[in-house]
Amino acid sequence: MDIESKYDRLVSIIVPVYNVEKYIVETMSSVRAQSYVEWELLLVNDCSTDKTVQVIEEYLAQVKDERICLINQASNAGAAKARNTGLEKSVGRYVAYLDSDDLWEPEKLEHQISFMRDKDIAFSFTGYEFADENGKGLGKIVHVPETLNYRQALKNTTIFTTTVMFDSKKIAKDMLKMPEVKSEDTALWWKVLRNGYIAYGLDENLVRYRRAGKSLSSNKLEAIRRIWNLYRNVEGLGLFASMWNFCFWAVRAVARRV
Predict the structure, then answer these.
(1) pLDDT digits over 42-93, tens only?
(2) Which residues pair with 44 in a beta bridge?
(3) Is-contact 35 106, C-beta < 8 A?
(4) CB-side exposure of 258: number of CA atoms within 13 Å?
(5) Do 169 and 226 meet the contact criterion of CB atoms below 8 Å apart?
(6) Does position 1 have pLDDT exceeding 50, yes or no?
(7) For the residues 242-254, what does the mean pLDDT come to?
(8) In the predicted model, what is the mean pLDDT of residues 144-171?
(9) pLDDT digits (tens, 9 = 90+) for 227-237
(10) Which residue, 14, 22, 49, 242, has most beta carbons within 10 Å?
């Protein structure tokens, strides 16, 4: 296989890592279990203070999988910076995000790559299932729409980080840098969509979203502040437009969790 064709097949999986010693082995194993094998896994350690690095190094010594790379940041700078570091180091055509405590079903990459190639698209996301602390699915599956444009996405936070994949031949990597703000992932989706791209949903349950331990996401007041800041200070929406979109966001956010 020549260099160009290898690049065209390769998926760069970016994982920001911080104090996830309990979960990171399962997450790495779910990537290694993929039916699609053309990938690189970039683990960006954001100065973890627990045994995360030790756990990763022991796992790598055991499995000896050269597709997995541990990158240590010089200082703790947050998830956005960690993901951007991974993006800078990535060499694949496709860019996928995975949170360090979430899990992929074995066919996730295979189905999503086929979906993107068949439709010739730049930005895709999939359905997912809420899981408990042990990674066991709870039966609450989030279905996704066929497409989302910018205006629709402002009202709908269905796009979940661990399900997203981009084609960097169609969207320049510079555009894929996450804004260094809270809810940086949502800010990135909106930035890409604002520039005229469409997000395509693959309505298959291919991800398990482990809710335990996600203190930022589970803090409802903080979530409200983050989203409001995106509307007002990142997207620059007026007060009425922000309130209008926020109402839709709140209803859909609650509906997904009940």
Answers:
(1) 999 999 999 999 999 999 999 999 999 999 999 999 999 999 999 999 999 9
(2) 16, 71
(3) yes
(4) 6
(5) no
(6) no
(7) 85
(8) 95
(9) 999 999 999 99
(10) 14
Q: Is the pTM of this model over 0.85?
A: yes
DSSP letter (8 states) at residue 84: H
Looking up tokens 């291919």, which residue turns up? Answer: 206
Report the share of the chain in percent with pLDDT over 90: 84
User: In Å, how far are 111, 123, 125, 128, 225 from 29, measured between CA atoms?
Assistant: 18, 25, 21, 18, 35
Describe the crossing of helices 184-194 and 79-89 by its angle, rounded to 10 degrees. Answer: 60
> CA 51, 56, 20, 134 torsion: positive or negative?
negative
Kindly give, in sequence order, each residue whose CB lies less than 8 Å from that of residue 143, ignoring residues fewer than 6 positions away.
127, 203
> Do 80 and 178 touch, CB atoms closer than 8 A?
yes
Q: Tell me the residue length of the chain.
A: 258
Q: What stretches of 35-109 adopt beta strand conformation (E)?
A: 39-45, 68-72, 94-97, 103-104
Q: Would you give the distance in Å from CA 207 to the centre of its chain?
A: 11
Q: What is the 8-class DSSP label of residue 156?
A: -
Return d(Cα 33, Cα 110) in angstroms, integer. 11
Is the pLDDT reported for residue 194 higher than 70?
yes
Long-range contacts of 106-112 (CB under 8 A, 24+ apart): 106/30, 106/33, 106/34, 106/35, 107/34, 107/35, 107/206, 108/34, 108/206, 108/207, 109/11, 109/34, 109/35, 109/36, 109/39, 110/34, 110/35, 110/36, 111/202, 111/204, 111/206, 112/165, 112/202, 112/206
Q: What is the largest CA-CA distance in the chain?
A: 56
Alpha-carbon distance 209 to 257, whole Å?
12
Say if residues 42 and 55 touch (Cβ distance below 8 Å): no
